[in-house]
């Protein structure tokens, strides 16, 4: 066959299945992730007067109103990260190295705290220690006045406690990568357990601890609900972004976009620094026998159990408070210590918000479950420049805060020519983009552990690649697909930061409705919706634990 004829046939040959998938996935990520972020940056520079193109960024530096908000955010983030890192690392060490009674219950409670809506903690602490809180009124009956939970101290405490499970999950996973022989060798050379921890174990744990600290910092820095509920007049960057974007007196998209870009730069900078730090302090040790449970006296074990359950009680107390208060009678914003189901009967928009939440979370999860394994296959089985770029793009949402991505999507698709503002479609788009990495990473991890011989044999026998993927690959990685899908769904039903920017009058979810009821002072209705949201969030975790045999490590 002559060269010109071969060249002509190659030109006429249809595109392969995986080539088409690569083009579609790349187009999806460019359209719904990169293009909105580029539009966001452009919106921050857009001005009617050419001399005011950089005015928004100039105001961030020169005006105390914006400068103080940025400084407040940094201080809150630093303090909350320290609290979360200390508590989470302590909890992970004690649970990993000592015998804890009810360890399965402890781990399940940590997971439940992890999947609960982030601002539930702020609201719960108000129920306990607010002006009319249960604990506040009890002490008032004895003539004692407690410090206010509102403002700086309360916001720092709540943000730190909310991020503690994140740090625990990362550090607990890190302990499983250290070989017991390393610790044994140090002890055999005469080192005490304390010296071994500080000189050997802790240095090996730096990558895991820094990852947990990074997640805690990003969570605290980008949190909108907690400072809005418990911070009162405390100005932080996410609150300013929200107020500038949805202001009743007129939205200032340029300022909101500029603030969002600053938030984006912080999260990307924090991620870059953490990866550099972790890579520099990674020792590449192999683990044949993970660290075992240490032998200790009965008194020592008692102290350890008290410490673990004490930390757990403080972090999980908000959940129990919300559930208990949903069963109490209310009078205005006050609770009466009488059992009642009136809240469940009279809460407005309860079932409508539940339906919206279920529809949005299920639809977005279905898209992630379909697209995620395809991207994972490209990354693992068909490495190259294009798939490497797709791999990079699929992880970008990890570094983009929900409020930033929501504003970027709104700027791009909310107005002309799409007019998707407030619709279900725009919420599904932002949900898919935000949580797609869960499905991708879960499927990619399992694909990396399975061989490709069966797939290659199927293709060699003439089975099309698409059918091979459905009949051979998907069944092999089905547990990972289900795990990623359930985790995606569990995090989407509690999604708030992006939803509060994009929702419309008929598309409000449970998390948004809780926030609205809190601002209205209807704490009874907020408790009812919060309890239902906790139960909905818990369902997929129970499925993972009970039927798929997972533990809390699948979250890390």
How would you describe this protein?
It is a single chain. This protein is an all-alpha fold. The protein folds into two domains: 15-46 and 361-508, MetI-like (MetI-like fold, Orthogonal Bundle), CATH 1.10.3720.10; 64-339, MetI-like (MetI-like fold), CATH 1.10.3720.10. It has 26 helices and two strands. A two-stranded antiparallel sheet has the order 1-2. Helix 17 packs antiparallel against helix 18 and helix 17 (350-381) runs antiparallel to helix 23. The model is unreliable at 5-13 (pLDDT under 50).
Question: What structural category characterises the helix and strand content?
Answer: mainly alpha
Number of helices: 26
Shape: globular
Which regions are unreliable across 5 or more consecutive residues at pLDDT < 50? 5-13
The radius of gyration is 25 Å
Average of per-residue pLDDT values: 82
Distance between the termini: 55 Å
Q: Could you tell me the number of beta strands?
A: 2
- List the strand order in the largest sheet: 1-2
The percent of residues in helical segments reads over 70%
CATH architecture group name of the largest domain? Orthogonal Bundle
Strand content: under 5%
